[in-house]
Amino acid sequence: MSEYPRPRAAVLRTKEYHPPLGARDGVRLDFNENTIACSPRVLEVLGRISRADLTKYPEREPVERLIASYLSLKASQVLLTNGVDEAIHVLCQTFLDVGDEFLLPVPTYSMYEVYGSSTDGKVVCVQAEESFYFPLDSLLKKINPSTKLIAIANPNSPTGRSVSRESIVKVIENAPNTIVLVDEAYYHFYGHTVLDLVERTPNLVVTRTFSKAYGMAGLRLGMLAAHESQMPWIRRMISPYSVNGLALACLPAAIKDEAYLKWYVDEVLQGRDLFNAALRRLRVHHWPSEANFILVRIGPKHKELVAAMSRRKVLVRDRSNDPGCDGCVRITVGTLEHTAVGIQALEESLAEIKWTPDEG
What we know:
Layout: H1 9-13, E1 27-28, H2 40-47, H3 61-70, E2 78-81, H4 83-95, E3 101-106, H5 110-117, E4 122-127, H6 136-142, E5 147-153, H7 165-174, E6 179-183, E7 204-209, E8 222-226, H8 231-236, H9 245-256, H10 258-282, E9 285-286, E10 293-297, H11 302-311, E11 314-315, E12 317-318, E13 328-332, H12 336-352
Parallel strand pairs: 1-11, 3-4, 3-5, 5-6, 6-7
Antiparallel strand pairs: 2-8, 7-8, 9-10, 10-13, 12-13
């Protein structure tokens, strides 16, 4: 007999996620965060928070109504979550049962597989096409009566590749009994959305985050939008107090400061162009990105590059363990100032490790 309680079988087989540990001092080009700061209006709100405010349980509904209006949705279609991670977790818990399948185009965001594998369903991975194009045909062939959930990150991480609206619609139409999650975490750097389809598409769920362009990753705040027919079941599976009061207090100020958001997004888009130009000049293989990061292929010296850049106080992310990404490193694009620092560190690091284009 076991000497201690054992978790259920799904927990034992769940894939673990291990974020890099330790100090993150320097220019943060490793986690796709806003690399400088949130809107100053957010700090003003935080400065007005009283001790008494912290004694109250948070109420998400008033802020959900505001966000719904901002996004031209109904309040009944919007749910604020503790980051998009909670939205993914809740969807998996709501829709994946014994014998169900979760289709996952890979490589992609790691937490889809983590939360999917924690259920009694089965995660079925579909490898991206050459050059990381969305595997539409392969995905459609995998759809069957057991398919209950499909996740599409648009743009995708870690590749930065986007998925056309036509492809997303085709997936939705070919899987009418399946929840199709379109994760638009990097929407602001891409500019295209399917949020307008939520009203008339019962099997579509769209998520957004306030961690990236808005610069509030530390407050943990995301949003899920779904058809009214699905939302009661999703709300049933989420804690009523999972979004903290500080995040809810700050969100109205963040979305109202459109000038700051536009400034930061413009900086990233200009920086992305500069980084692409530098990579071409250095003859580093990379893929076109519609997000605030670029995936590059370094080859066998990928770990050496990450370490060399860290010594220059520039942090980048080794993605070599992702499916099809052997030898790859992901570099976040931030402000123009941070882009210049990143490019210089990359040039110096490539020289230090004696890297040649043939290795990539």
